[in-house]
Amino acid sequence: MNPSRRRFLGSVAAAAGAAAVAPAALQAAPQSSAATQMPERVAYLAEPFPLAHVRLLDGPFLAAAQVNDAYLQSLPGERLVHMFRITAGLPSSAEPLGGWEAPQTELRGHFTGHYLSSCGLRHAMLGSDAVKQQGDAIVAELAVCQKANRNGYISAFPESFFDRLANDKQVWAPFYTLHKIMAGCLDMFTLCGNRQALEVAAGLGDWTGHWLKGMGDDQLQRVLRTEFGGMSESLWNLAALTGERGYAAGARRFEKTSFLDPLAAHRDALQGLHVNTHIPQVIAAARRHELTGDPRYREISHYFWHEVVGERSYAPGGTSDGETWNTPPGQLGKALSRYSQECCCGYNMLKLTRHLYTWSADPRYFDYYERTLWNSRLGTQHPGDGGKMYYFPLQTGWWKYFSSRTNSFWCCDGTGAEEFSKFADSIYFRGPSALFVNLFIPSELRWPEQGLTVRQETRFPAAGGTTLRFTAGRAVRLAVNLRIPSWTAAGGSVAVNGRRLEAFANPGSYLTLDRTWQSGDVVELTLPMALRAEPLQGDPAQLAPMYGPLVLAARLGGDGLTTAMQYDPDTAPAGAVNGGTQVAPRGRAQGTAEVSLPYGEEPEAAHWVKPAGELQFAAAGTELVPLHQILGERYAVYWQVHRGPRGGA
Ligand SMILES: [Zn+2]
Q1: Could you give the 3-state DSSP secondary structure of residue 171?
Q2: Sign, Cα dihedral of 353, 359, 365, 370
Q3: Could you tell me the pTM of the whole model?
């Protein structure tokens, strides 16, 4: 341990103590300046609450979080560290995991990093000490492996993978994997106060800094053609937590100029790029802006977000087809397949959205967040066993395909394990004397500094609206900002303590209730939902029916769908590549969703879709239900609309 390291570890001990009282969701959220050793340069207009201050109440998000938690708790810790021990030359008799964690797979170890993040997040969100202990035990094992490696390195594969990277030889994505481990350790520090986890992360940061020293700039730019995840983001976070600027220097070197320069110039050069390789680079740019105030990185973040959300996203909020942006902006007509919307992309776009939202408190960011959360994230976990989806097929006639328990460990299993551990992190935000209510999810917010508890009770989206109940130790003056979503139909209203107010707010803005709150106060918000249909970018004849924020899926039946067609098997065939795992549905798409409309009828008004019960609809003789509820059958998101001839019936 060098002297400068000893100094910063002394100072972070205090930070870890503070984190135990008010843990900040580092990986999932921008930090308040109190949590970092490096002062932040951005004035946040809305900041997240500590994850531990928001509890989910009964509803679809809590149910999904519990399924995820039960699955992750069932994974034995010794299996998660098995290949780390073997790589460090230490004995292990644990049974190796399969899939992308199998001993011969080059991405092995990535899921252990995600697992640590999920331990930190679940400890904070669900209040589980057992989960913290599972995370602590894995961190302790990683520390043992790191000590055995003697140079800060820690991974489930040998350092020679990085030699291959440096020498332009084929290798999967070693820095991608290292990022997951570093991020997992940082989350265990910020969310569980585990100081050893920060030391492990710092050791990895030191090893990375040493590796970078041997790299010329041109050579490094070649290295950065291989997926490297959020290395830059984690190094920025490490710099922020330790105050060690050497990590910031490393973070700057993990910037792929051929990607960032066009974004800074507001030029969409995204066609042909692998999507999930690049979103994390923009999250890192957002973090750089927060820690340095450099406006170039704010511009990069803004431009990228608007380009992806406005020009390259589908109705459910996801992006990518075959993991790539294959088309010019706004041209998704030929970009629907069984390989659409890699789930990791939705996870990372939500992370980026949170950063941008905190700088502006603009509620329109939450139109996107809510849409993506409900349609592209919530329904991507199997409600029975916690298996996750990789792609989200958007070509008509495919179905959902789920991972196995111990023989998949896809990238999307990792990001899914985190996503389903942090549903409570974006419901509420705060400003000076202001509360922002952004999502309609049953939950209870504890705000000790204001002596306030807010309980949100809602059947949303089965019912359009929500109810907030206040409990206050003393009367408290506060501007409560209720998000009025852009999808809100006519007739919205708000009542305080049973009295309906005259005023309302425009869709896509906040309705502000600035008053003194006391125990027993009740706010009832009514948000009427209506049917509409959104055209696919670049093809107005393909439309996705929607109800409020929900994408509706046409039910095309499950005839002929076998288990093997819907689930990655839990055993690998002998000699299989990538641990024998397959990530997309097997078989053939079948079925159609088509509707003929008379000339002059506006298809976007969705008069051709009719309500047929609570969250049930019908069109052209076919049932429709919310996309997140579809399971075990073929579906269609986009309908082909045929127009009658001018003057025809
Ligand atoms: Zn993925």
Answers
A1: coil
A2: positive
A3: 0.95
